[in-house]
Amino acid sequence: MAEAVRFRVNQHGPAGSPVRETFTPADPKPGWARLELKAMALNRLDLWTTEGIPGYPLPLPLTPGCDGAGIVEVVGEGTVLPPGVEQGGSVMIAPGLSCGVCPACLRGNDMLCPTYGVLGHVCDGTAATHVLVPAANLLPIPGNWSFEQAAAFPLVFLTAWEMLVHKAALRPGETVLIWGGGSGVGSAAIQLVKALGGFAIAVVGSEAKAMRCWELGAEHVLVRGDLKALATRVRDLTGKRGVEVVFEHTGAATWGTSLSVCARGGRIVTCGATTGRETTFDLRALFAKQIQIHGSYMGRREHLWTLLALLQRNPTNPPFRPVIERVFDLSEYPEAQRHLEAGHGFGKVVCRMS
Ligand SMILES: [Zn+2]
């Protein structure tokens, strides 16, 4: 076996602080598999794992990384593999971990499992050449996708699907305002809204990102600037009524505007707070407009299979695909973290194992 390498958070520090080390990969337990990773994708969760979350102790030292794709190298004794997955075959990883036996898991609602956690956040993740994962978290790679594409897919598409389909219950013909259209989850949401028959209004930070949102199928793209002017523009674009759904993950800086542009009876669904986690708002806007607010975290593992089925119906021209902004080598993982934090790019930041 070639030298196994991983990046470690030994103590919390700024983005880019994980330390490279060599290690001996452990053998998988029954029900688990060990992958030789070929690519991993970064998520905001990598940064939270590195920086630490107040009041939420993590089991340090820890290898971050929730998304990955590679080869099934070894499986634990007696382990049954999912359909389409075999030892030696190529796979991508579903990032959510749950017990599999509690009532929430049995309902398929694994994110509500009392033990729910994400790979690379509660146990060692994919910023490594090898990773251990439960066999239930393995999926075949769609069509002729590269390992980089497969690694960039699961977390953001699962998150956006859960938010749009299961939390916001998006209906064809409805309009969705998507903050951060150039982010991994934002670029996934633009494509899913279109695939689901809705209209996406994407908000981005620059003209360069606007063009990319058009290409992904956004109906309108607004370059963020003054938020009052942006809210007026959204009302103009929707015949004064506002949008039926607001796709939030930006948090404090945009929350007031999200409420203001949400239509009567509309839904705001949020999965993040990159600009700040505390905010105040006028409750009258909430009840007078009868707005529903949904919190969302990750998505049901089952729905990755749904997404896979949709992709496999038309593998040569899939209705959605991950957008990769930049590929680093795994040896540059700290730099990739800093690049993600700076947030200037469009789409996913990926590391390839050389
Ligand atoms: Zn459970």
Describe the protein in words.
The protein folds into two domains: 4-153 and 322-352, Alpha-Beta Complex (Quinone Oxidoreductase, Chain A, domain 1), CATH 3.90.180; 158-295, Rossmann fold (3-Layer(aba) Sandwich). 29% of the residues lie in helices and 25% in strands. It is built from eleven helices and 17 strands. Strands 3, 4, 5, 8, 9, 16 and 17 form a seven-stranded mixed beta sheet that branches. Strands 12-11-10-13-14-15 form a six-stranded parallel beta sheet, with helices on both faces. A two-stranded antiparallel sheet has the order 1-2. Strand 10 (175-178), helix 5 and strand 11 (199-204) form a beta-alpha-beta unit. The two termini are 14 Å apart. The model has no long low-confidence stretch (mean pLDDT 96). The structure holds zinc ion. The site of zinc ion has 7 residues, from helix 2.
CATH topology of the largest domain: Quinone Oxidoreductase, Chain A, domain 1
CATH superfamily of the largest domain: Medium-chain alcohol dehydrogenases, catalytic domain
N-to-C order of helices and strands: EEEHEEEHEEEHHEHEHEHEHEHEHEHE
Number of helices: 11
| Broad CATH class of the largest domain | Alpha Beta
Rg measurement, Å: 20 Å
Distance between the termini: 14 Å
Kindly state the number of beta strands.
Answer: 17
Please give the share of residues in helix: 25-40%
Structural class: alpha/beta
Outline the biggest β-sheet. Answer: 7 strands, mixed
- What integer is the average pLDDT? 96
Total number of domains: 2
What best-fitting shape do the alpha-carbon axes yield?
globular
Tell me which ligands are bound: zinc ion
Q: Which strand-content bin applies to the residues?
A: 25-35%
Q: Give the oligomer, counting copies of the same chain as homo and different chains as hetero.
A: single chain
